[in-house]
Design a protein that fits this description.
The exocyst complex is composed of EXOC1, EXOC2, EXOC3, EXOC4, EXOC5, EXOC6, EXOC7 and EXOC8. Interacts with EXOC3L1. Interacts with BIRC6/bruce. Interacts with MYRIP. Interacts with SLC6A9. InterPro entries: EXOC3/Sec6 (IPR010326), EXOC3/Sec6_C (IPR042532). The protein contains 28 helices and no strands. The chain is mainly α. The protein has four domains: about 210 residues, no CATH class; about 130 residues, no CATH class; about 160 residues, Tetracycline Repressor, domain 2, CATH 1.10.357; about 160 residues, Exocyst complex component Sec6, C-terminal domain (Tetracycline Repressor, domain 2), CATH 1.10.357.
């Protein structure tokens, strides 16, 4: 207490010291005293209230403890009275044991009396129930079966209550009612038969199906009641629970599986279209069954059975299992396509699960895939591998067939525009088209892969086609009498190149959404190059044929015979025109190039005849006569090729102008102007070489040694620059060996 007082005084001193730190604060001493007095009065009031509250609580607690003590005493007295009464009644309870046994016996006898009629009539009820089952009166049969089972279960329960360890009596009762289990099994068999044919039964006799469902519902209720009693007593009658509802769904599931598997009527050996037929039957059966289930079966089952949902899941699972089995077989390419098309497209289309008659109960979005992504990927890989082998074989066979046509004695067919062609492009692209249409039925991705595959194999095929066309040309050159229609079939080969080009473009435009797809767009230039090379080789071969026939007449040019009046150029023109009447069957792009090449080669051969120095003019008159003849023949050739090139819209005069320019050099009468004329020729035709000029001067026969030397030195200063559009004519012309020193002599 003293310690507390000291702490209070110390605290008060500190507070007063804090208040009176400055002299001016002494004026407020009275004010501080009143404030502290108010605080003290407030604290004392709160303290008094708290103490009063504590005192009230203590008073209440003491009162409650006093009441509790009185209650405990009363309870103690009551327990003493109960104990006394219990001791006095022990003897009375023991004397009632006989009464208890009598009550149990009375209960058993009452049950026996109650079931006495059934007990004596069990054989008769069994016969009646058997007859009803055979007659198909399933509800009545089940009613009697329920009575038998109720009597049996009641007696066994009473026996169980009286003496659960007495197995002899339990066995006796069970044996007496032994036929009951057989009837139950027989009735169940009839129910399962109806359920197996439920889709047919619901259309013909829905009441029978309803009866089956009612029987199953009764058994389900009995099962639930017995299981509830088992929790209380531990007793379960024999054969319970039957779980007929669960068995019903098992039967339905087995029926669905059997129905799906039983739709395969053919094998690959008996029918190549076995899988298509099998899948179509499945589609029809499943769709019909689900429509019947949705419209009729749901009316025969309680809503909580969710019969349509369960059947839908059963069919989906059975289909998935069947598709897995089919996928695991060694399927051919067309069979893989049929399977994947059905699984990925048909199953989820309006032809099946999206059918309006199944909406809205069937939501395709909630159905799991019939085949896993891994299985689909494996099938696609197998399909692509098989398709690759097939395409290679088909292309090889198509080419072999086409090659047989090349040696026929009859001309090839012509298209609607009159151009020769063979059936090869049509066969090839019909095959590509068919495979692409099939792939498009499965997926866009597969379609693109097949298109890439077709174009890749087309690239390889065109290389083989090029080699075969080259061999065809070489064999003909060894024996020009064979094949009989070589020219016509070579024209057809050339035309096929254009057809191939157009077909490739058409195929890509039709089956490619995006032309910039890598690997596809890049294949076009490569194939175009091969096709152009084939066409170029073909045109070259045909021109080779022409120039072989012209060889004799070309050799007459610029000879003495030619100068004296040879008609070699007339024959050349007639021969070329005759050949080009056949070449009219070549399609325009290649005919245009071929005409230009023929024109160039004829002019080159004419210039080669000049450069081979077959003649050397000895007088101005001969030079004039020869030059004028060259100009006339150049005009003759110009007229011919203008005629052949009509409709192409190109200038074809340039080549023949070269002959005229050379003729002007030969015709020149003033040798002093020869240097100027030759310089003009060289500037106009930059590919002309010194040996060409030497040969040309040799043909003139009058150039002086100094003039030749001057001209040669000028040429050695460097060739003139050629224009970008200039087509070289002299570079391929070889002059017979003659060095400049000999020429100057």
């Amino acid at each position: 207490m003293k310690e507390t007082d000291r702490e209070a005084v110390a605290t008060a001193v500190q507070r007063v010291a804090g208040m009176l730190q400055r002299p001016d604060q002494l004026d407020k001493v009275e004010q501080y005293r009143r404030r502290e007095a108010r605080k003290k009065a407030s604290v004392e009031a709160r303290l008094k209230a708290a103490i009063q509250s504590q005192l009230d609580g203590v008073r209440t607690g003491l009162s409650q403890l006093h009441n509790a003590l009185n209650d405990v005493k009363d309870i103690q007295q009551s327990l003493a009275d109960v104990s006394k009464d219990w001791r006095q009644s022990i003897n009375t309870i023991e004397s009632l044991k006989d009464v208890k046994d009598a009550v149990v016996q009375h209960s058993q006898l009452a049950a026996a009396v109650e079931n006495l009629k059934n007990i004596f009539s069990v054989p008769e009820i069994v016969r009646e129930t058997q007859d009803l089952i055979e007659q198909g009166a399933l509800l009545q049969a089940h009613r009697k079966l329920m009575d038998l089972e109720c009597s049996r279960d009641g007696l066994m329960y009473e026996q169980y209550r009286m003496d659960s360890g007495n197995t002899r009596d339990m066995t006796l009762i069970h044996g007496y009612f032994g036929s009951t289990q057989g009837l139950s099994d027989e009735l169940a068999k009839q129910l399962w038969m109806v359920l197996q044919r439920s889709l047919v039964t619901v259309r013909r006799d829905p009441t029978l199906l309803v009866s089956v469902v009612r029987i199953i519902e009764r058994e389900e209720k009995i099962d639930r009641r017995i299981l509830d009693r088992k929790k209380q007593t531990g007793f379960v009658p024999p054969g319970r629970p039957k779980n007929w509802k669960e068995k019903m769904f098992t039967i339905l599931e087995r029926t669905v599986t059997t129905r799906i598997e039983g739709t395969q009527a053919d094998t690959r050996e008996s029918d190549k279209m076995w899988l298509v037929r099998h899948l179509e039957i499945i589609r029809k059966y499943v769709l019909d069954d689900l429509i019947v289930a949705k419209n009729l079966m749901v009316q025969c089952f309680p809503p909580h059975y969710e019969i349509f949902k369960n059947l839908l899941n059963m069919y989906h699972q059975a289909l998935s299992t069947r598709m897995q089995e089919l996928a695991s077989e060694d399927l051919e390419a067309n069979e893989i396509v049929s399977l994947l098309t059905w699984v990925l497209n048909t199953y989820t289309s309006t032809e099946m699960m999206r059918n309006t008659e199944l909406a809205p109960e069937v939501d395709v979005g909630t159905l799991e895939p019939l085949l896993s992504a891994h299985v689909v990927s494996e099938l696609l890989d197998t399909y692509m591998s098989t398709l690759t082998s097939n395409i290679i074989a088909w292309l090889r066979k198509a080419l072999e067939t086409d090659k047989k046509d090349w040696v026929k004695e009859t001309e090839p067919e012509a298209d609607q525009d009159g151009y020769y062609q063979t059936t090869l492009p049509a066969i090839v692209f019909q095959m590509f088209e068919q495979n692409l249409q099939v792939a498009a039925q499965i997926s866009e991705d597969l379609k693109t892969k097949v298109l890439v595959l077709c174009l890749q194999q087309m690239n390889s095929f065109l290389s083989r086609y090029k080699d075969e066309a080259q061999l065809y040309k070489e064999e003909h050159l060894r024996n020009r009498q064979h094949p009989h229609c070589y020219v016509q079939y070579m024209i057809a080969i050339i035309n096929n190149c254009q057809t191939f080009k157009e077909s490739i473009v058409s195929l890509k435009r039709k089956y490619l959404k995006n032309e910039v797809e890598e690997g596809v767009s890049l294949s076009q230039p490569s194939m175009d190059g091969i096709l152009d090379a084939i066409a170029k080789e073909g045109c070259s071969g045909l021109l080779e044929e022409v120039f072989l026939d012209l060889e004799q007449h070309l050799n007459e040019l610029m000879t003495k015979k030619w100068l004296l009046g040879s008609n070699a150029v007339d024959i050349i023109c007639v021969t070329v025109e005759d050949y080009f009447n056949d070449f009219a069957k070549i399609k325009k792009p290649y005919k245009k190039r071929m005409t230009a090449e023929a024109h160039r080669r004829v002019v080159v051969e004419y210039l080669r005849a000049v450069m081979q120095k077959r003649i050397s003019f000895r007088s101005p008159e001969e030079r004039k006569e020869g030059a004028e003849k060259m100009v006339r023949e150049a005009e003759q050739l110009r007229f011919l090729f203008r005629k052949l090139a009509s409709g192409f819209g190109e200038d074809v005069d340039g080549y023949c102008d070269t002959i005229v320019a050379v003729a002007e050099v030969i015709k020149l009468t003033d040798p002093s102007l020869l240097y100027l004329e030759v310089s003009t020729l060289v500037s106009k035709y930059p590919d002309i070489r010194d040996d060409h000029i030497g040969a040309l001067l040799a043909v003139r026969g009058d150039a002086s040694r100094d003039m030749k030397q001057t001209i040669m030195e000028t040429l050695e200063q460097g060739p003139a620059q050629a224009s970008p559009s200039y087509v070289p004519l002299f570079k391929d012309i070889v002059v017979p060996s003659l060095n400049v020193a000999k020429l100057l002599k």
